[in-house]
Amino acid sequence: MPGKNSNVRRGAQGAPLFFDRAEGARYWDLEGKDYIDYVAGMGPAIWGHSNKEYLDTVKSQLEKVFSLGSTVAQQVLEVELAEKIVQHVPCAEWVRLGISGSEAVQLALRVARAYSSRPYVLRFENHYHGWIDNVHGGRAPASIETFPHPLQSETDTGGLAPGVRDQSLMIRWNDTDALEAVLDRYADQIAVVLMEAVMLNYGCCPPRPGYLEAARKLCDKYDVLLCFDEVFTGFRLGLGGAQAEFGVTPDLAVFAKAMAGGLPLSAVAGNAEILEVLRSDEVLVGGTFNSFPLAVAAAVTNIEMLARNDGAFYRRIDDRQRQLIDGIREVGRQHGHAVFLQGPRGVFHLNFLDKETAYTPADLACADWAKLVRFNELLLRERILIGGGSRFVITDGLTQEDIDETLRRIDKAMRDL
Question: What SS3 class is residue 230?
């Protein structure tokens, strides 16, 4: 193989890790050593590993129908899942299912362009919308005077298609003035404003108070669609995603990861008038594994489990996350380290700087990044797995014993830092 099957698996380790089994919030390697998991498959495994109710659903569906393909027929579960998404997600009137977050983003962009008859997508620096060429990387230009093109071409990959940068504009996030200035000048060429409602892929930076509301008002004023990329936040922050948590409803939203509890599945949800371009076949999209039966069945059960007992799952996640954040901060204090921790429900970023909140990457510029790299290496030595961007993802598989053991191992890492 030309390396690992995902380049972002490089992480801090030298030799590749190979795992044999998983249960709860732990993996075991081929030598029987346990690793405490705060990666959760980069977000999907919201129940941890080996949750019996979840697995029983998958096993039951496997014995019924596990494959349909994109040209044959449907299953009733697709309708049930769409109904549940519409029930819980504020923007959802209609739902189209897919298989991955990257593909769902592409569908949302195609729908937006077809509906508006405009060419450009307005993106934000350091937001992540998948690995496909037209949304991968790029940097915002220093001034909108250089618009509409070119984007600064900085990227971490070769092989991008010629002209792909000309498909979008880019500005920095959490800057209402910049957003208004760009829309005022280029709104008649912008099909959609695409953003993470929380910048989870860089520092778990939250929106500034009033920013999402301002974005909604500006999109309405200039008649531009607003799309939230909720691939990570969807069903993790709450049943209604970030849009319900912040009280701001986009026109379109993209979901994946935690929606199916660990199996691959995605969705584009939004306004029925906009999604009519799919129903009318103005916009065509296929996919052998769209509405993959195992994943659809898993998602129906997953959402039922999340909603049970008035969302008791989310209260458990809040408690575990609070214990970890308070405990890590105290361990850092004892060893003389100013530990920075922030993030919404279900995920948080760790760094080393003395600050309460970071709204933008610039706010993290004074962090001790060299210390963070060393600390992440020490975490791996202590067999604690965290996600890219120094993120801890909290799952329901996490027990009190896991939390206590995590803090003991972090204490050792902080001691040696």
Answer: strand
Separation between Cα atoms, residue 217 and residue 379, nearest integer Å: 43
Q: Give residue 207's region: left, alpha or beta (phi > 0; psi -120 to 50).
A: beta
Exposure letters 112-130 (e unless 16+ CB within 10 A, then b): bbbbbebebbbbbbbbbbb
pLDDT at 289: 86
- The model's pTM is 0.94
Q: Strands 120-124 and 168-171: what pairing?
A: parallel
**Cis amide bond preceding 148, omega within 30:** yes
286 — pLDDT class (breaks 50, 70, 90): confident
C-alpha neighbours within 13 Å on the C-beta side of residue 119: 10
Is 10's pLDDT higher than 80? no
What CA–CA distances, in Å, run from 73 to 69, 76, 79, 199, 265?
8, 10, 13, 38, 18
d(CA 41, CA 258): 10
Q: Is pLDDT above 60 for 13?
A: no
Contacts 24+ apart (CB under 8 A), 312-315: 313/396, 314/238, 314/345
Angle at 133 between CA 130 and CA 139, to 5 degrees: 85
Strands of the 34-38 sheet, one edge to the other = 19-23, 26-29, 34-38, 384-386
Q: How far apart are CA 354 and CA 371, in angstroms?
A: 14
Site of tokens 């039922």: 304
Q: SS3 for 33?
A: coil
Is it true that the peptide bond before 90 is cis, omega within 30 degrees of 0? no
pLDDT of residue 363: 96
Angular region, 343: left φ>0, alpha ψ -120 to 50, beta rest: left
- Strand 190-195 and strand 225-230: the pairing is parallel
* Residue 19 structure tokens: 């795992």
**Sheet strands (E) in 174-270:** 190-195, 225-230, 252-255, 266-270
Quick one: which of 101, 363, 136, 400 has its CA closest to 258? 101
Q: CA distances (Å), 405 to each of 316, 339, 379, 384, 412, in order?
A: 18, 19, 12, 10, 11
Report whether 25 contacts 47 (CB < 8 A): no
